[in-house]
Amino acid sequence: MPRLLTGLLLTLILAAVGICDDHTSDTTSGSSFTLRVLPSKNPDGTKIPVTTKTLQQTIQTIKNRLNRIGVDDHLITAQGSDRILVQLPGITAEQHPKIRASIITPARLALKEVHPGSRTLADALAREKPEDRVLPPGYELNVLEYEDGDGDGQITKENLLIKRLPALDGSYIVLAQELYGPNEGNILVELNSEGTKKISDLTSKMRHGRDRLAIVLNGKVLRAPTVMDTLGSRLEIIGMKDAKEAKAIAAALLSPLKNPVKIIKEHTARAPLGNEE
User: Fold this and answer.
1) Of 64 and 141, the one with more pLDDT
2) Kindly report the CA angle at 45 between 118 and 79, in degrees rounded to 5?
3) At 211, is the pLDDT very low, low, confident or very high (cuts 50, 70, 90)?
4) Out of 24, 156, 158, 277, which could bridge 144 as a Cys pair, Cβ 3.0 to 4.6 Å?
């Protein structure tokens, strides 16, 4: 009898363990990211240390970005002095890359004046070794890449001399909306009153039909159009590959990261068969 009871108890214990194992293996889908907040830089290149305020501002920015793309089920917490844990239950493996891009995209928009003599000076400077270049004071050398318009996918490159400091940055944006239809892949941007005055004052003094203004996103020149008239509160940014990219960047433009972030760990849990949405 004692042996029978012992065997029965063992059976019940094993069955209970089996139930627990089945339960823990039945995980729902979800993603998590561990981020490191990196120091920002002053205009002279010196680093600005990450503070508690910086960490909280970054957390709020990430929350705003996720909310704008429809991800409102999230848990975001500070981890130590410069790390953030982002937990997103219910996110599938297919959604993971989109969420990843939304979190880490800096979305630093800048409008920069192009040097009047850029077309000749920039090419000459580009041919020189970097250590031998003498740039005009306040300017930097950049490259504009664009398709030539023949439909063959050929990329044309143009060297550009642009102002190092922006005439206008993304802090003046109050609306950023991706466009569809014939303008798919473009973003409509609306500026606040202060930004409108700045861009209006700048472009009213430019030589219409001759001077150019570079649109720079995250350090990359998207376009450098010739200014044909005085600009106002609404601008259209072109250069995104499709509406999906435009939507992610539009959301990021409304909540720009003041400090860059780096993903140091990420995890995706796939829902068991039959539970995928």
Assistant:
1) 141
2) 130
3) very high
4) 158
